[in-house]
Design goal:
This protein has about 140 residues and is of the alpha/beta class. It has three helices and eight strands. About 25% of the residues lie in helices and about 35% in strands. Strand 4, helix 3 and strand 5 form a beta-alpha-beta unit. The N and C termini lie close together (about 10 Å).
Length: about 140
């Protein structure tokens, strides 16, 4: 069970609230398998219904991970009024090209964390998206 520091969870929730009415998105980096930082990424879709992570920011964060010796732990985004579970659109977008689900996802081995603002306190849950569009919840421990 992945252990995620409360500060990381709180930062994702804060980002979700600050980006209302639109969905927020970003990446969580890890060192030695432990999450160490939240990196906000612009939602180019600027929509309350979906997110598109800014590709230039994603590329810069990849370079930073390489330079800092970090790994991509999770991709996160918020749901403004729906449960913390990947939508069919979220699942399709986890693949490249989007919707090509009979291959590995674009970021295999990376969790997807959802922050739902539909309830208070916000619900934060993690999932794996696998070949074929299979979605498997991964229980997390907030420490």
């Amino acid at each position: 069970m992945p252990r995620i520091p409360r500060t990381i969870v709180d930062e994702m929730i804060a980002h979700a609230r600050e980006d209302l009415p639109n969905e927020a998105c970003g990446m969580v980096h890890a060192r030695d398998g432990s999450p160490v930082g939240v990196h906000r990424v612009k939602n180019d879709a600027a929509s309350p219904y979906r997110y598109e992570m800014n590709p230039l920011q994603m590329m810069k964060l990849e370079g930073r991970r390489d330079h800092e010796g970090e790994k991509l732990f999770a991709i996160y985004h918020s749901h403004v009024a729906s449960p913390a579970r990947p939508s069919p659109t979220d699942v399709r977008m986890a693949f490249f090209p989007p919707g090509e689900m009979e291959q590995e996802p674009a970021y295999p081995g990376t969790m997807y964390i959802l922050v739902s603002l539909a309830s208070e306190p916000p619900d934060v849950r993690a999932f794996w998206v696998r070949r074929g569009g299979e979605v498997v919840e991964e229980p997390i421990e907030v420490i």
